[in-house]
Amino acid sequence: MTKLLYVTVNPKSTEHSFSLQTGEAFLESYKAANPNAEVEVLNLYSEDVQEIDTDVLSAWGKFATGEELSEVEIAKVGTMTKHLEQFMAADEYVFVTPMWNFSFPARLKMYIDSVLLAGKTFAYTAEGPKGLMEGKKALHIQATGGVYTGSGLNFGDDYLRQALAFTGVTEYDALFIEGMAMNPEKAEEIKEEAIAKAKELGRAFSTVNA
C-alpha cells in the first residue's frame, strides 16, 4: 500500500492560508485518485519538533561511547526518532509551506535535521554519500507574497530539494503560489489557478499502485 506523508508548516488556519488551501485541494484530489493509499498528516506547528541542541549532541556522543542517556536526552532523541521512522516509512512526500524571508519556517529545518541521519536515510561510501531513500517522490507547495521564480532567492525550495536528493529522493516537483501581496487585486485569481494545478497534480502524483 502506498503511504503519503503530508507535512504542513504553517501556524495559520487553512481559511487564512493560500498554501494550506492549495494543499488541501491537492490532498482531496490525491485521495480520490488513490482511494487505497494511506495518508499521514504531520502538522509541525501542532506537535513537538526537536532541534539539535546541547542535549541531543550529548546523547549522540553517548551513543558512541555506550554511556547511559539522561531522561531529558532520551525524550529529545525519541522525538527525533519518531519523525525519522515516519519519514522512512513513507513512499511519497508533500511539504506545504509559506515563504518567510526567502525560506520556509524554522520548524521545517528542525524536522529535516531529524530525518537526515547517516546509516538511515543516507550512507557514507567509498564513492561519497549515497541516498538510501531511492524510488520515492516529493512535492513542495509554497506560497509567497512576492514573485521569486527565477530570482535566485528561493532558498527554502532549493534547500528542501537538495536535502531530499541527499537522501535519494530525486523525483521532486514544486507548485508555487506567488504574487498575492504584490497584486492583491489578483490574489483570488492566483489562488484559484494554483488550486486547479494542485488538483491536476493530485490526480497524477502517485506512481505506485495504491
TrEMBL record:
Its EC number is 1.6.5.-, 1.7.1.17. Residues 3-200 form the Flavodoxin-like fold domain. Belongs to the azoreductase type 1 family. It catalyses: 2 a quinone + NADH + H(+) = 2 a 1,4-benzosemiquinone + NAD(+); N,N-dimethyl-1,4-phenylenediamine + anthranilate + 2 NAD(+) = 2-(4-dimethylaminophenyl)diazenylbenzoate + 2 NADH + 2 H(+). Binds 1 FMN per subunit. It holds the Pfam family Flavodoxin_2. The keyword Magnesium does not apply. Quinone reductase that provides resistance to thiol-specific stress caused by electrophilic quinones. Its cofactor is FMN. Signal peptide: none annotated. FMN binds at residues 17-19, 99-102. Keywords: Flavoprotein, FMN, NAD, Oxidoreductase. It comes from Exiguobacterium oxidotolerans. This is FMN dependent NADH:quinone oxidoreductase. InterPro entries: Flavodoxin_fold, Flavoprotein-like_sf, FMN-dep_NADH:Q_OxRdtase_AzoR1, NADH:quinone_OxRdtase_FMN_depd. Coiled coil: none annotated. It comes from the Bacteria. Gene3D superfamilies: 3.40.50.360. One of its GO terms (molecular function) is FMN binding. Homodimer. SUPFAM superfamilies: Flavoproteins.
